[in-house]
Amino acid sequence: MLKVGVIGAIGYVGAELIRILINHPKVKLEAISSTSYIGETISSIYKNFYGKVNLICTDMEEVIKKSDLVFAALPHGLSEEIAELTFKENKILIDLGADFRLSKEEDYKKWYGLNFLFKDLHKNSIYALPEFNRSKIKNYKIIANPGCYPTSIELGLMPALKNNFISVDNIICDSKSGATGAGRTLSLKSHYTEVNENLSAYAIGNHRHTPEIVECLSKISGKKVSITFTPHLLPINRGILSTIYCNLKKEICLEEIHKSYAEFYKNEPFINIMPLGETAQIKDVKYTNNCNISLHQDHNKNQLIIISVIDNMLKGAAGQAVQNMNILMDFEETDGLDFIAFSN
Amino acid sequence: MLKVGVIGAIGYVGAELIRILINHPKVKLEAISSTSYIGETISSIYKNFYGKVNLICTDMEEVIKKSDLVFAALPHGLSEEIAELTFKENKILIDLGADFRLSKEEDYKKWYGLNFLFKDLHKNSIYALPEFNRSKIKNYKIIANPGCYPTSIELGLMPALKNNFISVDNIICDSKSGATGAGRTLSLKSHYTEVNENLSAYAIGNHRHTPEIVECLSKISGKKVSITFTPHLLPINRGILSTIYCNLKKEICLEEIHKSYAEFYKNEPFINIMPLGETAQIKDVKYTNNCNISLHQDHNKNQLIIISVIDNMLKGAAGQAVQNMNILMDFEETDGLDFIAFSN
Amino acid sequence: MLKVGVIGAIGYVGAELIRILINHPKVKLEAISSTSYIGETISSIYKNFYGKVNLICTDMEEVIKKSDLVFAALPHGLSEEIAELTFKENKILIDLGADFRLSKEEDYKKWYGLNFLFKDLHKNSIYALPEFNRSKIKNYKIIANPGCYPTSIELGLMPALKNNFISVDNIICDSKSGATGAGRTLSLKSHYTEVNENLSAYAIGNHRHTPEIVECLSKISGKKVSITFTPHLLPINRGILSTIYCNLKKEICLEEIHKSYAEFYKNEPFINIMPLGETAQIKDVKYTNNCNISLHQDHNKNQLIIISVIDNMLKGAAGQAVQNMNILMDFEETDGLDFIAFSN
Amino acid sequence: MLKVGVIGAIGYVGAELIRILINHPKVKLEAISSTSYIGETISSIYKNFYGKVNLICTDMEEVIKKSDLVFAALPHGLSEEIAELTFKENKILIDLGADFRLSKEEDYKKWYGLNFLFKDLHKNSIYALPEFNRSKIKNYKIIANPGCYPTSIELGLMPALKNNFISVDNIICDSKSGATGAGRTLSLKSHYTEVNENLSAYAIGNHRHTPEIVECLSKISGKKVSITFTPHLLPINRGILSTIYCNLKKEICLEEIHKSYAEFYKNEPFINIMPLGETAQIKDVKYTNNCNISLHQDHNKNQLIIISVIDNMLKGAAGQAVQNMNILMDFEETDGLDFIAFSN
Question: In sequence order, what are the beta bridge partners of D2?
């Protein structure tokens, strides 16, 4: 059994990691930490764990000491120091924050307002989107787990970019996310009566996931990709739906595009290309590690519309992190992640 | 007091009309009709009217007979015959269906599968969006009340098109609507457990509001406008939020655009241009006849992002119909419609 | 026009008061205050007021100075000092907090942990539930507006107690409230993802509304009433539904009880006794000042089940406060309050 | 691997059974049936199964032929004929309908309006609530799976009745259920806009689960138990919360009651007695087979308040059915059911 630990256990992503890891057949969750809850039992904070998980929050150092692989689910700016520790001890860090997602320090500086603390560590890290660069992931000990919105958009666009179907100049990504994406931190924006019976866009034109999406899509396509990305807050707990609009380079029928998508992802355990005529929706992937994608063409012009849905807490965070662990450790990629969505 | 009636009283739009008309200071609601509920009291069907409204459903002919102005809130294909009757008797019809929204029969045929029954009536009808063509409305006796999605999109784009700020070639309209938009008719798509905790797109590339939007925007701009329109179903009761992406023709700063929007709508009682930096959201217009609009620019290119929100049942249907009546009758335009949104 | 002011304008109840008062035909809202938002415009905090209300938050003293009647919507413990000021100046205070609801200091001490600051003021105050003691309200200058849960329960039980139909020993009140009841203050208990898709009971056996309910019911019946009261938090914004179980004293048929309820409330503008066979539900009173009550009998024993529903922000708070003002000022009791519920 | 089948596969309970059985380590789901969907793939109806389950709906006879154990999830009145077939062939039927839940034909007649079709079969059936009569279940081939509301109430009351703590005369059960309980059949009562932002009670004093609860509680206590049961419809998908009020027979402290509950259920894998001071809530058991129970005492009298929560689709239906199968087949009782609730 692999010894694993979770740093940042009391955030929503940390709690979701615990839920998955406790049931994972090949790992043992040795320790969890949280700065604010040291000494407290996880089940006293999250009652859903009552009678199931009795781990006590300790500190970061203890988690690293007891684990061979560490998950960090922290706000950005806190993971480089952890990576410095794990790397020194030849342990693996899967970071669910943003610290290692951008390869260029200038981008990190521009969008997050911070410099790289340990520049060398970044050369030893990889942005790990399994469906894009699975084979390379095993060579690294510092894993940058993709963001939630980026995962939905990158998976939705990858086959179109790889097949050179679409223009890279003007891709519109209109994304909608459930409220767990905003985390457990109190804020008027996450107050029940403000979110309920409402829809609101936010961070229009300047959301921090933008450079991550641009960098990954540019790597995929080999060209500089330009996107417009608008996130919206939905009155639901879980799920992201991205509606992606792209200009087809030449007339190409939807059937052909669909066929190449199905072919591209045919061996992927977590990706479903919906039959033509079907529309991917959030409820079909909620509480799973799946990404469902449906393809559509506008009635009067050469435009491809892609709908891509994931659960923001699973394929968009904790699930993909465990998927990356499975790849790193040569486990079955679906170990601990083979969830079927609920019918209702 | 103007004598008015409602045909199609038991649908959600009909019921909303009744609520407004009962409280309107200058009209008397004389009769309501519903094919399926003849003889039944409105308050036995909608308990919210209990103790307030005791009208009994009668038939269409009775409504026309008793009213000087008739509202029809019916599925498409049923209003032309009503218009034939009201026009003959020199009464006014405000039609909340689609029968008179498209000026070209070929479009109606293509998108709704029907021919015009009474071609001449169409020449005597007007698509009545007050903020666009208020002054002409009074010349007509057959009023086509705009659709809900079209209202949100047309109001959002009008100043940009009138001022020639944006390209008309490639406007993306990503719209999200609450479930009242699907009406009271039973369907698995409107079943509680299917809508709740979900988001789904539908009718992608072929929604029937598309030709209506195209025709109106083309009239506004004087050029053939091309749009992509994708509606989504939100797990809320009321409200539409349209996120509209357009390409700016030349570099123009957001401040200037904002100023011209504010100027354009400065005398409009129901339109609010939000201050720069604010984002229009559904809860601020829910249960009102308002349309709030906010303007945004993308970080790295000449693209304008417009957020336009309305209550689909009010400015998107019953409210706008009453606004049109107010205009036709020279009432105060806000009579019966001066709702302030609830803070929560 | 009566000059009125609101102290505690930024809480949910304060904002609801503002919405009603702005549209009230016989008052002018002169000033509002909020300790934390002095100098800020209400519409910059509540965007729903944008373009409608531009009042700027000032301090308490200013509000009292400018107003002849003051509403205070504050946490308990802050209103006595305000009353001291208004009473001295012969102005009216309608207090939506708990400071003047309990007549016995020992109860206030026991349930709220505080002593009465100005004992004499309490003799000059009245617990004002119009349907119970309308005629006495006009004699007072300090008005204690009832709590939300108490209003739903007291109105539901009043005719049964007055008619001596039920035992006063063992009344079970199982109440369910929407999340606005918890206010705008941030708390994990009001965090969207904690409330959504959940139901939870709280303060079981020790909620502070208990002594208020007991005192009022005891006054109504003339005997010491004993209740069990359990509140629950619903995943909705507005509304309270109380399911009340009482033991009938003797065999009495439901028809007779129903008749006496209808008779009891026949002149009340805000109370609807639903026809036998109907069940009162939250959506039929939401966004109104109404209280709908339905009556039911258990299948196998002499037990009466009463369902009583109100909007917690209106009849349960701001609406009832304005109703009390209308009574005090000899306005029409429905002035500013004649809302019809939305059909959906 | 045990060969199993599901009759009534397209209802919500049927779909939930399929989800569990597909992942169950010791069974093979051989066939499913649905009268209305013969020939259709389950994943074409429930898109959440897309890529995971490809079973095709057949007819009832085929399901029985292919299976050693059959689950029936049908409206009442249809299972006796199935039982007649399975019993003849010495196969096991786990019936999730009401046909075998009541032991007395007169009760079935009174509450469901039907006679027993095959009286002898009823002697060979058992009402199977594992925590009550686990040891007897294995002797039967016709298993009546308890209803959802009854499960929550019976588990909540069992230790108090067994220990003779409470009076059996006047137990009040105020229950609240999510909308999946009303199933997939279209109805205005399950229409999204009618359920959302609402709470309503229904079937007050005459819900069909009443005689089932009374019979089971009477068996548990050895005395005729009398209850009042009021169900309410919550605007959530999953979960039941029952608030149960009972009169303590003598003064007994809550600590002692809590201790005896904990002792009573100490070996039960699916029951959690929450620590004193905690309150059981729906989100902590949603999507699990657990029943969480919390215990409370009223402030001023000898009354016990029990909160009991389950997921109506799992412990209240499909999960308990699989638990019963596990018991019948000597599998681990938690096989296929060891779900941890999501933190959000």
Answer: D27
